[in-house]
Amino acid sequence: MTDEIISDVEERMKKSVKNLQKEFAAIRTGRATPSIFDNVRVDVYGTQMPINQVATISCPEPRLIVINPWDKGNISFIEKSILKSDLSLNPSSDGNLIRIQIPDLTEERRKEYVKLAKQKAEECRVAIRNVRRDGNEMIKELEKDKEISEDDSKTAISKIQKLTDSYTEEVQTITDNKEKEILTV
Fold it and tell me: pTM of the predicted model, to two decimals?
């Protein structure tokens, strides 16, 4: 019974960390990477679609991104979506391809991105602590209903705390790496 709760808690904590990694991929650094467009949606065919579902995104050079739309009629929609996004990028089109030069980040912009990364990391830590709280409440409920002993309850709560510490540490490591990546010129 407690093993099921603990594995559920671990699974939910893993999802929180994976979500953080996905969000970090969308935070721009000084390098060209297709993942910075993960949160950009294009208004095509009467719906909002992720940009990678309407075009191929490649990085032939460290500071250049090339977007090749599958339907050339969507070029203007893709350009508008990129301009509207908070990426501060300026796409240029030749009618077939969209080229985007990735400018160097200013020191001010780098600090903003680090601040954003830390904010997202804190949100992830809060999510992990909420999962811990939920798990602990389920364990205490089992103990209260006399389905498990007090010793089993303490052991399970201890395991949940170890998981919490482990995933919080992982979040810190991921955040430190992202911060280094952003600040490295």
Answer: 0.74
